[in-house]
Specification:
By secondary structure, the chain is mainly beta. The protein contains one helix and nine strands. The structure holds zinc ion (ZN) (2 copies).
Length: 116
């Protein structure tokens, strides 16, 4: 996963609960409503202080971009994730948090988080 994308107002985002304490928010870009997402979770490294949906200030978030027409051309140097299905959402490969010390890692398959 990419670098943590803070500061961001988590409560201003449209969060989707995918289970295991993980919330996702799609990233829009120009006319494209779903070019990537941010994965929010409790930071296991103790580094992050964003307020999560539970009101606790220990949340972490990292963003990924999808391998879609236009995205690869716009971001040739970024790792991109394959969308196997949008509805329900299935991505590959897995999503591993890049926050220092945070071990959060899993898959999104069929709209659900599957811990690694
Ligand atoms: Zn993390
Ligand atoms: Zn973190």
């Amino acid at each position: 996963m990419g670098e943590p994308q803070f500061p961001v107002a988590v409560d201003a985002l449209s969060l989707v609960d995918v289970g295991h304490g993980v919330q996702i928010s799609f990233t829009s870009w120009g006319p494209h409503p779903r070019v990537g997402l941010t994965v929010f979770h409790v930071c296991t490294g103790g580094n992050c202080r964003e307020t999560g949906p539970d009101g606790q200030r220990n949340w972490c978030g990292g963003g990924v971009l999808f391998d879609l027409p236009g995205v690869r051309e716009a971001f040739p140097d970024r790792a991109l994730w394959t969308v196997e299905s949008f509805d329900p959402l299935t991505l590959s490969p897995s999503l591993q948090c890049a926050c220092p010390g945070c071990t959060h890692h899993g898959y999104i398959r069929a709209g659900r988080w599957e811990p690694c």
